[in-house]
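Exercise 7. Given the encoded structure of a 526-residue chain, write a plausible sequence.
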């Protein structure tokens, strides 16, 4: 979870979406081999920025394959902390060993899940086939069948057929799928575009056909979905930066944008300017003067009437329309603070609610050792304010949120405690608490592995307005962040059994709670 939070820029698991967690779980099961994967595969996996891909490929062409996380941390555009997080989703297989072939290795994964909730039964399944770093197929079935075929050529081209995501620039013109709910950390200020990429999500964003060319200095892609929307992009790389031109034509609107990223030593400038009926612009800078020390500033303006149905706002709490905002933040090792202010001129002129918003997030997550135990404490204080018209003046509604997470780990033993209190003026305060204990086999190579986690949750709030979101441990590929409100109690058990064979890996997962029962079977074939 810590690696996912670092790579996405999310402050906690509650800010993530199901499709994004599914993507990282798939990458953990099928890591990207950075020494063998094509340019298109590296860009579309979503783990790297376009500049990082260009820098990595240039490094490999000059010095040879990257063989460790330590070496990756020395490549321009990467840091030791980033390399450590990436290690869960990449591999360092090399071209070097004589007679060793990697490109034709076939891997398959099948997942079947049955859910019983409130007297209803829901069956779903997923199938993933990966042919080295050259091709992969996703098939997902829940309420309807979805899937995609992605092919990455030996030469720098790629093709996607079926369901896919389009993520260009900073999202002002074309960004499908995941958006963070806010700016909780400095890492969330700037996005890494993955261009056109296939998806195995149960609820994909687009369906159609896409193709792209990914060279060392120039890349381009185009996609046409079944709704008749055409999205195109071209990027040019040079030195320590890139510039991209994007265009969209279709039922969801038409427009163009220019995005950029440029590094000057420890300072990175990024942004995007778009026009679709009206103008929208987003620009920021990030300064990293030392290891795990960073400062960032971000400004954005979306004119009222800006119309791009394919856009994805920098924060999911707003759309790319009618907003002027500024955000700043800093991080010093385990301490982080951000402040975001946004004004909606259109709402203000129409005297609508929530025309001005303010949010600040202060968090500290020190980690220390107590004998053989690793102890982690996360303190997070969030303040939100909304201004709304009230006669000739205005009224302010505040939401105060204070949370403390304490975790303890020793080998396979795990314990976690959360205390979370909220108050939305002028209502009564609410609170949520949970205690979790569990065990996970410490070895990832043992033939038989198992895990079990038991959690008890208590919630007391005065209604929906004072709701509290809390991430729950669930089955792989099933992301759960329920909203707790009113007076509720819950007890849940999540267990898994993993069995390894020479060419197969089997896993049986079970979740039993006061609300539902879930059973899941997974098999990997290598």
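Solution.
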């Amino acid at each position: 979870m810590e690696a996912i939070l670092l790579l996405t820029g999310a402050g906690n698991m509650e800010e993530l979406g199901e499709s994004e967690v599914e993507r990282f779980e798939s990458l953990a099961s099928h890591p990207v081999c950075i020494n063998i994967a094509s340019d298109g595969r590296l860009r579309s996996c979503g783990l790297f920025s376009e500049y990082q891909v260009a820098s990595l490929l240039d490094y490999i062409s000059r010095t040879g394959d990257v063989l460790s996380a330590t070496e990756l941390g020395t490549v321009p555009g990467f840091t030791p902390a980033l390399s450590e997080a990436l290690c869960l989703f990449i591999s360092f297989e090399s071209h070097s060993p004589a007679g060793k072939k990697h490109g034709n290795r076939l891997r398959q994964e099948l997942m079947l899940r049955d859910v019983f909730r409130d007297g209803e039964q829901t069956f779903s399944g997923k199938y993933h086939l990966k042919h080295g770093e050259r091709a992969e197929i996703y098939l997902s079935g829940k309420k309807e069948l979805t899937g995609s075929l992605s092919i990455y050529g030996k030469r720098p081209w790629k093709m996607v057929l079926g369901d896919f995501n389009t993520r260009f620039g900073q999202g002002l013109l074309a960004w499908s799928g995941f958006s963070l709910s806010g700016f909780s950390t400095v890492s969330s200020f700037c996005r890494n575009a993955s261009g056109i990429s296939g998806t195995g999500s149960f609820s994909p964003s687009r369906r159609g056909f896409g193709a792209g060319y990914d060279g060392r200095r120039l890349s381009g892609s185009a996609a046409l979905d079944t709704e008749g929307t055409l999205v195109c992009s071209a990027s040019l790389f040079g030195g320590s930066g890139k510039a991209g031109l994007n265009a969209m034509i279709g039922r969801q609107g038409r427009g163009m944008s220019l995005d950029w990223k440029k590094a000057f030593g420890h300072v990175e400038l990024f942004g995007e300017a778009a026009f679709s009926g009206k103008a929208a612009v987003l620009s920021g800078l990030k300064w990293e003067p030392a290891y795990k020390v960073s400062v960032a500033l971000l400004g954005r303006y979306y004119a009222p009437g800006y119309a791009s149905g394919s856009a994805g706002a920098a924060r999911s709490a707003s759309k790319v329309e009618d907003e002027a905002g500024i955000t700043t933040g800093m991080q010093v090792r385990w301490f982080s603070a951000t402040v975001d202010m946004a004004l909606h001129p259109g709402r203000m002129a129409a005297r609508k609610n929530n025309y001005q918003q303010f949010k600040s997030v202060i968090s500290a997550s020190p980690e220390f050792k107590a004998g053989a135990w690793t102890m982690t404490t996360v303190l997070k204080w969030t303040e939100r304010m909304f201004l709304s018209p009230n006669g000739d003046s205005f009224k302010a509604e505040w939401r105060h949120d204070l949370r403390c997470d304490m975790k303890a780990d020793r080998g396979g033993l795990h314990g976690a405690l959360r205390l979370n209190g909220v108050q939305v003026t002028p209502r009564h305060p609410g609170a949520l608490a949970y205690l979790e204990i569990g065990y996970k086999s410490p070895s990832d190579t043992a033939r038989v592995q198992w895990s079990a986690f038991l959690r008890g949750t208590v919630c007391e709030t005065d209604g929906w307005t004072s709701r509290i979101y809390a991430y729950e441990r669930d089955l792989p590929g099933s992301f759960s962040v329920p909203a707790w409100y009113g007076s509720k109690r819950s007890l849940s058990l999540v267990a898994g059994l993993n069995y390894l064979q020479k060419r197969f890996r089997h896993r049986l997962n079970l979740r039993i709670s006061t609300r539902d029962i879930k059973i899941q079977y997974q098999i990997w074939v290598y």
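Remark. The chain has seven helices and 30 strands. Students should compare their own answers with the one above.
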